[in-house]
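in:
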């Protein structure tokens, strides 16, 4: 029965440590008081549970006319009427789900609509800090846009996105990877997450054209507002970004009687001792709610298709009858003409020339294909013999000469580009040696670079971002051109695997191991402890990005394998959570009225599994493909099946825009895949419709590591092995990683 002042004032819905108390107020109405562990958590308007905005700024708030408590469910009804007479019939159902979780199911129906009221939003949220003298006294998480260090010097966020003194920090759901906002008070450990549950995230073309009001906008936004020392943690429907710097502006629903305006929210109240755990818990809960779909591909067909694509676009050198003085792959392939563009070679990062040379060399040896062997060797030999300075620093970008002319290296040597290229030279040498083929010059090149890394390691264990390979100064060093230290993490796995490889001819020499551990300690202090994953997307501003998480996962996992010190596994898991949070895990379809408008990313394939690249823009790509092996190994190390699901998303869903089944580009190479695109805005219409060499490497790198560990590039074939066998092979891999040169290994029992 409905509560009344005399009979039921004070009825309480309880979920763990959170409670909702019904309180009678004037006019025979009822407001709800939220509290956590006895501390009040006021709603947006502390005097009114329901909060709407009319015409963008006029508040319409109120309380319920009836509340009925039935076991774990509190059903509330309200009627709010504007001064012009429009009626808002509000039905809110609060469901206690235990452990501090409340589900809100809201439906709003309009009647007697008056055109003069124009448009509206509904809000739900809380005043999570009413004494916020500054924004940064609290901690926040919105996936792919807001992390702990956003407003620190090292966070280095671009000036065209929200800054520390701004008011609005609202983000539409199609701009982030899951519809989630988290607030944490580090003084009390109080943590609140709001998750939009069951979002369809639908829109129409008018949205991309900047039309601010439409009944077909069926998506929300989440975020923070700071005003008059109050922090509001809010959900807004439809998804307005209000006056957020760099946002797409407001979005409203019109005032009309047949409007559909409803949503479900998961409100999660908890006490969490640290930021990293709060992020892991809130992200994990949202992930479970959405349970992202895995879209399987044939991994064997994909593997073979990429190898064939590499052979198809290989640029021969003059010794093979080609026109270049060095062999390699084009920087990109046009996906309209399918012709190569620009045969210029970057050893790592977006070029990945050394890696792709290794792949076809190894494939050639394993299949007895001499053409592949010859072509792979040519690439590997070039980088091993021609790229390094007299001090051992690789020059990382080469413009080949044509028709007898000699090419030139471009200015600059970047730590991520260098280590990303040279890692594959270690792997190529190790594979050759265990196959009975001696390539000492490849290992020598790797050791020269390793020695350079030792000679240039800073006292705190770090390295700098980039160096000038053209100059040797009076101290006998290549000058530093960028003193950012956050690429240090990129050197860790290289040094670990070089240590393993170097034992072949220098057993007992631990100099590379010592350098790896020093670099790891720097990264543990400055990346892991501060939750600052920045700078590894080197062609973006040096700020938070997805690939810095991937580099940290790789580096910390390599150190865990080397040392078995549990702190490195903890660091790897934290980096994994951060990395996941950049991956789209909710369906974001094209506009309902898209019709035949062309898209870059396929309109009928899922966005789930594509990751956002960096803070400051909404560009997404296939780059999460790099991480399937690392997440699979976390699954084996921890037994946490969440990591298995994420590994499958990485292995399968990252290929949604690949021509693996030839349905996207009939008759063209199976490995072709667009490099980057926008999910939001005019959905899927914009992007770089080219395929870069790193695209192939992103898929093949984990596949070749699966081969190193389990004998097959196909993760699903690995899954068919017994758990005991998978653990056994994983333990062996941890001793040799991808630098297995055939050494004796103490087999796990």
């Amino acid at each position: 029965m409905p509560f009344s002042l005399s009979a039921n004032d004070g009825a309480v819905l309880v979920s763990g440590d959170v409670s909702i108390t019904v309180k009678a107020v004037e006019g025979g109405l009822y407001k709800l008081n939220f509290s956590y562990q006895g501390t009040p958590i006021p709603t947006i308007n502390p005097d009114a549970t329901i909060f709407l905005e009319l015409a963008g700024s006029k508040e319409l708030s109120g309380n319920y006319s009836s509340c009925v408590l039935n076991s774990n469910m509190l059903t509330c009804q309200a009627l709010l009427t504007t001064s012009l007479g429009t009626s808002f019939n509000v039905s809110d159902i609060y469901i206690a789900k235990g452990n501090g979780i409340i589900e809100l199911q809201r439906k709003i129906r309009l009647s007697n609509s008056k055109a003069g009221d124009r448009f509206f939003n509904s809000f739900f949220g809380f005043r999570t800090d009413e004494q916020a003298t500054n924004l940064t006294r609290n901690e926040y998480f919105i996936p792919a846009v807001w992390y702990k260090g956003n407003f620190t010097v090292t966070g280095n966020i671009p000036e065209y996105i929200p800054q520390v003194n701004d008011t609005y920090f609202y983000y539409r759901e199609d701009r982030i990877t899951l519809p989630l906002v988290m607030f944490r008070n580090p003084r009390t450990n109080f943590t609140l997450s709001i998750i939009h549950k069951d979002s369809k995230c639908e829109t129409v073309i008018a949205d991309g054209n900047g039309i601010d009001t439409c009944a077909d906008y069926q998506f929300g936004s989440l975020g923070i507002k700071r005003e008059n020392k109050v922090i509001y943690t809010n959900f807004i429907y439809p998804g307005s970004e209000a006056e957020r710097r760099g946002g797409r502006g407001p979005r409203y629903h019109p005032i009309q009687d047949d409007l559909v305006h409803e949503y479900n929210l998961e409100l999660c109240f908890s006490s969490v001792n640290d930021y990293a755990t709060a992020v892991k818990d809130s992200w994990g809960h949202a992930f479970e709610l959405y349970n992202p779909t895995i879209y399987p591909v044939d991994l064997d067909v994909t593997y073979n298709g990429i190898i064939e694509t590499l052979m198809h676009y290989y640029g021969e050198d003059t010794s093979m009858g080609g026109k270049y003085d060095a062999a390699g792959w084009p920087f990109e392939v046009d996906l309209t003409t399918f012709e190569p563009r620009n045969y210029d070679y970057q050893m790592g990062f977006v070029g990945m020339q050394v890696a792709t040379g290794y792949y076809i060399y190894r494939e050639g040896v394993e299949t007895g294909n001499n053409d592949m062997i010859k072509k792979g060797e040519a690439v590997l030999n070039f980088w091993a013999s021609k790229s390094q300075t007299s001090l051992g620093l690789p020059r990382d970008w080469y413009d080949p000469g044509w028709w007898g002319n000699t090419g030139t290296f471009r200015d600059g040597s970047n730590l991520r580009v260098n280590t990303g290229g040279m890692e594959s030279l270690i792997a190529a040498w190790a594979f050759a040696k265990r196959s009975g083929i001696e390539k000492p010059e490849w290992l020598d090149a790797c050791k020269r670079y390793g020695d350079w890394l030792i000679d240039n390691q800073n006292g705190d264990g770090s390295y700098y971002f980039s160096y000038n390979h053209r100059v040797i100064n009076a101290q006998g060093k290549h000058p530093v051109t960028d003193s950012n230290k956050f690429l240090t993490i990129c050197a860790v796995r290289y040094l670990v695997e070089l240590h393993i490889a170097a034992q072949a001819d220098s057993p007992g020499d631990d100099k590379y191991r010592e350098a790896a551990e020093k670099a790891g300690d720097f990264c543990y202090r400055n990346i892991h402890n501060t939750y600052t994953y920045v700078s590894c997307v080197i062609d973006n501003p040096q700020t938070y990005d997805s690939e810095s998480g991937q580099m940290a996962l790789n580096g910390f996992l390599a150190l865990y394998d080397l040392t078995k010190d549990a702190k490195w596994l903890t660091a790897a898991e934290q980096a994994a959570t951060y990395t996941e949070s950049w991956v789209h895990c909710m369906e974001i379809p094209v506009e309902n009225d898209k019709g035949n408008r062309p898209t870059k990313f396929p309109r009928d394939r899922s966005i789930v599994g594509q990751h956002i690249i960096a803070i400051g823009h909404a560009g997404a790509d296939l780059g999460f493909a790099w991480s399937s092996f690392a997440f699979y190994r976390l699954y084996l190390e921890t037994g946490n099946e969440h990591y298995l699901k994420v590994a499958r998303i990485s292995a399968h869903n990252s290929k949604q825009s690949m021509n693996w089944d030839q349905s996207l580009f009939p008759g063209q190479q199976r490995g072709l895949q667009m490099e980057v695109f926008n999910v939001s805005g005019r959905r899927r219409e914009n992007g770089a419709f080219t395929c870069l060499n790193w695209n192939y490497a992103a898929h093949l790198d984990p596949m070749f590591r699966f081969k190193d560990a389990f004998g097959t590039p196909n993760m699903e074939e690995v899954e068919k092995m017994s758990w005991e066998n998978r653990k056994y092979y994983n333990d062996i891999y941890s001793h040799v990683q991808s630098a297995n040169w055939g050494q004796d290994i103490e087999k796990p029992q």
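note: The longest strand covers residues 87-98.
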